[in-house]
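pls design
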């Protein structure tokens, strides 16, 4: 691998780490009334729960409080947040190993490629879990929040109080994770650039 490939790898890897790290705490789903890349301090669903103000640290509800009666939804939220954190750690290790490769040990090239490939797969599980919750009904639970079936696909979720009649759309955090995932996927093969 040449120096240009190493530089491209480092830049793309840094961008990947930043995008996924910034996307993790932001809203995976936001009300359909809001714009897709909305950073307003409004209602959102993150991997860690539901927030009435998305940019504030307080959660109104944890996933287990809302979706424990839904078949597997709480588990998907747990899987998504675990995979997101693990993927960032693996991408960071690969980033550090890239510097070792450039200064002393060219054999680390394949380790970096393998780590990136593993991190891309783990990130796919993360966003795939969130997309599954967004697109699929998971049972029925009208008891936790009377009058609201919280197990509907999150696309049709009206909020715990029913205030969002148009449902939800994929949020800023989800979009950033997808873009970071794409950068990581492309970056898996940048070590093959010969110059």
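designed seq:
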């Amino acid at each position: 691998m040449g120096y240009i490939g190493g530089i491209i790898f480092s830049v793309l890897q840094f961008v990947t780490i930043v995008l996924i790290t910034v996307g993790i705490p932001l809203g995976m789903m936001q009300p359909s009334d809001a714009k897709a890349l909305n950073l307003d301090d409004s209602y959102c669903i993150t991997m860690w729960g539901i927030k009435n103000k998305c940019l504030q640290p307080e959660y109104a509800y944890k996933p287990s409080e809302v979706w424990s009666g839904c078949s597997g939804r709480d588990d998907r939220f747990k899987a998504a947040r675990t995979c997101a954190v693990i993927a960032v750690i693996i991408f960071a290790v690969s980033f550090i190993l890239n510097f070792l490769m450039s200064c002393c040990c060219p054999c680390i090239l394949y380790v970096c490629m393998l780590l990136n490939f593993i991190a891309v797969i783990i990130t796919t599980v993360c966003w795939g879990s969130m997309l599954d919750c967004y697109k699929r009904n998971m049972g029925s639970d009208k008891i936790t929040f009377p009058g609201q079936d919280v197990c509907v696909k999150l696309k049709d979720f009206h909020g715990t109080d029913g205030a969002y009649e148009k449902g939800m759309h994929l949020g800023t955090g989800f979009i950033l994770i997808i873009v970071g995932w794409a950068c990581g996927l492309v970056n898996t093969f940048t070590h093959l650039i010969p110059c």
